[in-house]
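Its record is retained below.
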Amino acid sequence: MAEVFLRRLTRWQADQQREAVADLYAAAYRGAPGREFEIRRVFLDRFEEHVQRPGFDMVIAGGAGLAGCVYGFPPDRDGEFWQGFRGGITPEVEELTALGRIFAVAELMVLPAFRRDHVATRLQTLLLARSTAQLATVLIEPSNTPARTAYRSWGWTKLGELSPRGGRPELEAWSRELRP
């Protein structure tokens, strides 16, 4: 296996790499054959919005080409990120959100050929290393057993479930304390 190097990208560099990152996304999350164009388009729409978020941060892994990527940002302080959270969020999470002390991992992707080589572990560790947030969070589809297993192994715990607006699939919110 070729050596994989990690590199943090600025917002401008991330935007310049959007097509390569979309290719990575489509390859990492292979869907039904013939849907690659749609998968890329949906990702690019979401990525375009995410890269503009205040506090956006991104790390890529690669050598000759991209092997993986992770990015995220602090959610808005108004609590909209938690809309649809069943049972309500805890007062502590609500306070951390209002204070801007939460960092949301929006996307973590690794090509199948680089899985099981700790690329994802290294990516998420580097992304969160310089965050000033107290709590990191990620939204995971309940059927995504590999993601749930990976986050659990990194010390994340399930916080609860969200029922997003617009008929989108239910998600699980996972979190990990970054600083006491």
